[in-house]
Write a structure and sequence with these properties.
Length: 209
């Protein structure tokens, strides 16, 4: 549990923070800039963050590390949170952090792709499909499919307009947001294991076999 103490010259009082309920031991805690907000890290690597929203506290919990949280800190402006995991892993998080989305998928995804704007994420299904989901509300957006072969790699273009699907025969199919094939290329004799988008130019991809 978390207990707040108010220290005064005449009297010291305390009260329990009723909003805080944890199922893992707490390993780190820091109060936000100007005494507003609170960040707590636990033994599983999760961070729970409360930020002031007018008269209310807004809560969000997110996985920051695969190890216990050893340290937390805010910058002076209160718009960046720094987390420390083990062994010495440091991450910076831009605030505010959006509420995390959880997806239940049929098969363990070996491929996970996301759009540059952070609005969508894609997982494979049935060996030949790429299912696109919204990160805002977790709903299904659309499905891209290969006509032949097994899906071995995928990527979403920088502007989100083009999705590239690679199969185990070295072929890459490019589809638009209406799921229509706009181009294809035979890039290798065997399976393509990795696709990467150009960060500055939409429609430019690199591949590895």
């Amino acid at each position: 549990k978390i207990v707040f103490w108010q220290v005064g010259s005449q009297r010291t009082t305390s009260h329990e923070f009723a909003e805080a309920v944890f199922d893992q031991p707490l390993t780190s805690m820091v109060i936000g800039p100007e005494g507003k907000g609170l960040a707590v890290g636990d033994a599983s690597g999760r961070v729970t963050l409360w930020t002031a929203d007018q008269d209310d506290l807004k809560k969000v919990t997110f996985p920051a590390h695969d190890s216990p949280i050893d340290g937390l800190g805010f910058d002076d402006n209160g718009d960046t949170l720094v987390t420390v995991g083990r062994p010495g892993e440091i991450a910076r998080w831009k605030l505010p952090i959006a509420q995390q989305q959880t997806f239940e998928v049929v098969e363990s995804p070996e491929i996970i792709v996301s759009s540059t704007d952070g609005q969508t994420v894609g997982f494979p299904s049935r060996g030949k499909n790429l299912e696109i989901y919204s990160l805002e509300n977790g709903s299904a957006v659309r499905r891209h499919s290969l006509n032949t072969g097994q899906l071995t790699a995928a990527e979403i273009a920088t502007d989100g307009a083009i999705v590239a699907l690679a199969n185990d025969a070295g072929r890459v199919v490019f589809q638009d947001d209406r799921r229509s094939t706009v181009a294809y290329a035979q890039l290798a004799d065997d399976g393509i294991t990795k696709l990467a988008r150009s960060p500055g130019k939409s429609g430019v991809f690199a591949f590895a076999t």
